[in-house]
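Most newcomers find our protein records easier to grasp once they have seen one. A record pairs a protein's sequence with a compact description of its fold. An example says more than a description, so a record of this kind follows:
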Amino acid sequence: MSSERKRPTEQIHWSAVPDKKPKIEEQSEPEAELPKKAPLPESVEVVISSPAPRGKRETVVTESGEKFTIVKLIAEGTFGKVYHVTDKNKKEWAMKLSKKRNRVVRFYDHEKKMMDMIGSENHKNLMPMCTFGELTTNLDNCSPWMILMPLLGPSVREVMERADDAILGVFHSFPVEDIFTIGKQLLEALEVLDQLGLFHLDLKPENILFNNPNLDVKLEKFNNSTYHTVVNDLHIRLGDYGNTTIVTRGEEQFGKVQTQYYRAPEIFLGLPYIETTDIWSVGCVLAELYTGEILFKGPRSKPNRPADIVQFFMMMDVLDKEPSLDQMAEAEIMQSPQYLRIVANRSWEDQVGPFLLLKENIRIDDTQENVEYLFIVIDYLLNFDAKRRPPAYYAKKYL
C-alpha cells in the first residue's frame, strides 16, 4: 500500500508545595533498590501450531477405499471439526467433518453445493475446489460425510490469539498497511460472491484463513507501548460457507444471520439482508485487526436485558450514528419482532456503559502514516443504512 492515498478532509504538571518545613528524619539504612524492569525484546517469534501428538495415529477410510492418517485436530466449531490429515503419498490435507446433529445431511448438502459453486471460480481469495465423500467409520462422534480441502494456514483469529500468548501484557496489532492488504482481499472475495449471487453472512476472523500452511508470525516492536503482528505472507482466503445463501432475485430474504458481534444493523431491525450486509462485517474486522479487540462486544445477557439489544445501542454510540429515517420507516411498516423489541427497550441505551468512539481507538503514539485514513474507511464501511453502504466492487477502490 503506497503512501499516496488522499487524506480526507496541554500537558498539565503538578508540583507539591509543602506548607511547612519538613521534619528532619533520623538517618536510616538506605532502602534496597528495586530491580530494574527488563527491556522488552525487539521481536518475538509467535508459535502458531502445536506439535502433533505422539503415538500411533488413527487411520480413516473413505467409501472409495482411500486411506487418510489423522495428524491432529486443527479446528473445532459449534457444528464441525477440521483435521490435519495425510494421504498415502504423504500429501497434507484438511478434512472437515460435521458433528452429529439433526439435519446433518441437509447442512452437508448445502455446504457441498456452495463449495462447488465457489471452488469452480478458482479465485485466490476464496476456497479452492474440494473433494467430497463418506467415511466407512465414524470419527470422534462426527458424521461420516467429509469435505477434503487443501491444507491452508491458521485463521486470523488464531494468529491474534497466539500473539496474545507470546508476550503477556503488551498491546499488539497488525500494521496499518497490512490491514489495508487484508481488507482489499476480503472485498475482492465478496465481489466474486456478489457476481455468483451469493451472500456469505458469517464473515469474521475465525473464517478468514491465511493461505500459507507454514506461516511465520512475529511480534516486532513498533514503539515503547506497541508491537506489530507481522506475517511473512498476507495472502488470505475467505472460508466456511455453511451460512452462505443464494440470492433469490425479486424476493426479499430475512433471517437471524451473522455472528452477533459482526451483525449488521438491518439484521437487528428485522430488515432483509442484501449484498452490502457482509460489508458491515468487513468494517468490524478491519477495526479489530487494529485494536486487537472486538469492536462491538457488548455486555453479556442478563434477565430482561438481552445482549443483542444492548449491542445495537452500543453500535449507535460508538459510531455516533443512528438508523436512517428510511430504515426506521421500513422497519415500522414491517413491524418485525426484532424492531418491536428495540423500540420497547429504548431505555436500555443508557446501560451500554463506558465506550470509545470509533476514532478514539487511534492510539495517540501511533505515527503510522495512514492510520487516520484507515478509520475513515472503516467508518465509511459501517454505514447504518445497508442501501447506502458501498458494495464490494466500489469499496475496494479505497483500500
